[in-house]
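Example for tutorial group B:
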């Protein structure tokens, strides 16, 4: 007697994921536009002056690295979410659209931060940047709530993983709000918190799923 092979339901989120991947890739590529070639007058055209000018652009390098890894971690978590979603509906599409809107906005506060980090407006620039990431965290929570519904999830998705994800994401807006408040105290403290946060989210993305 021939045993029929188990059929795997077709995953219906392919178009949504492909579109999202494109938006993430564009947003992360736009970050490099913040780096400018130093402009030197003819009398200063020598290696020491060029090296000094390049070093003075450190706020742009810091902003680029912070935003690059922040968006990269967003993409990894986005992939992790949809790995467990077998189909989508209008709620998922709109929640995902809200997230992508904020992701495409990230290069702008990155540019503001790079421009004003060495000025008297550094605190406001850091606060603006942090506020953007608060919105990102809120949008991720909306997406998770929309996508992690029983009728949309794969049957093999562990319940413990769903609960752990909801619990971890719930604290995201609060963490970034702490960075937002820290910006008004010291922009360096704010940037340190933001760096710690993308490292934390990277670690949670790499942690094994609970069975």
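The residue assignment follows.
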């Amino acid at each position: 007697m021939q045993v029929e092979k188990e059929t795997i339901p077709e995953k219906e989120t392919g178009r949504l994921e492909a579109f999202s991947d494109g938006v993430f890739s564009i947003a992360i590529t736009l970050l490099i536009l913040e780096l400018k070639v130093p402009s030197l007058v003819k009398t200063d055209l020598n290696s020491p002056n060029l090296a000094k000018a390049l070093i003075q652009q450190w706020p742009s390098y810091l902003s680029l690295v912070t935003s690059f890894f922040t968006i990269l971690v967003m993409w990894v978590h986005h992939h992790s979410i949809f790995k467990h979603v077998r189909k989508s509906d209008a709620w998922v599409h709109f929640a995902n659209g809200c997230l992508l809107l904020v992701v495409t906005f990230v290069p702008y506060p990155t540019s503001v931060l790079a421009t004003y980090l060495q000025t008297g407006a550094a605190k406001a620039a850091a606060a603006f940047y942090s506020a953007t990431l608060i919105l990102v965290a809120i949008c991720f929570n909306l997406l998770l709530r929309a996508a992690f519904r029983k009728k949309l999830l794969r049957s093999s998705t562990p319940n413990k993983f769903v609960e752990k994800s909801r619990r971890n994401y719930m604290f995201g807006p609060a963490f970034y709000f702490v960075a937002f408040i820290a910006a008004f105290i010291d922009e360096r403290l704010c940037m340190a918190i933001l760096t710690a946060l993308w490292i934390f989210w990277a670690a949670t993305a790499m942690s094994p799923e609970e069975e």
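The longest helix spans residues 122-147. Compare this with the pattern of hydrophobic and polar residues in the output above.
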